[in-house]
Amino acid sequence: MSKKNKLNLTDGFPTSVQVQFHEVDAMKIVHHSHYIYWMEIARFQFAKAMMGLSFTDFEKMGVFLPVTKLESNYLQSATLDQEIVIFLKLLERDVAIATFHYDMRDKNSGQKLFEGMTEHAFVDRLDKLLLHYPEKWNEALQLIKQTNPSYIL
């Protein structure tokens, strides 16, 4: 994410994680790969809580969302036992691509630790790119825009 495109995501959908022992190195600093896993946790929590859709629901619809792009900006190290809040926003697009923006902050101080973005294509069981969002996605997006408009960019 470029500096000129800094987003205020603190009014986005919140998900909390606590840094676990297996996520840190000998200096008790979180390994960079775990931030990517935390983005996944936030996406699945958002889909379940705000869209009423689980991974199984997407599978039943024959829809998959592979990651096609990932951006990460590590600002401050997270450490063992630290509580982190991940704020997520979904970028509304005209094409069947889901773009999520993430802002990870220390729960107690509010200090920003990480910002990132993932982009996902919508594909069917045969890996064919879908040109339109599934109807359930559109319905859920409209509901979110009415109930929590700050979660949508």
Automatic annotation (TrEMBL):
Keywords: Hydrolase. GO terms for molecular function: hydrolase activity. It holds the Pfam family 4HBT_2. It comes from the Bacteria. CDD domains: 4HBT. The keyword Ribonucleoprotein does not apply. InterPro entries: 4-hydroxybenzoyl-CoA_TE, HotDog_dom_sf, YbgC/YbaW. Its EC number is 3.1.2.-. The keyword Coiled coil does not apply. Belongs to the 4-hydroxybenzoyl-CoA thioesterase family. This is Acyl-CoA thioester hydrolase.
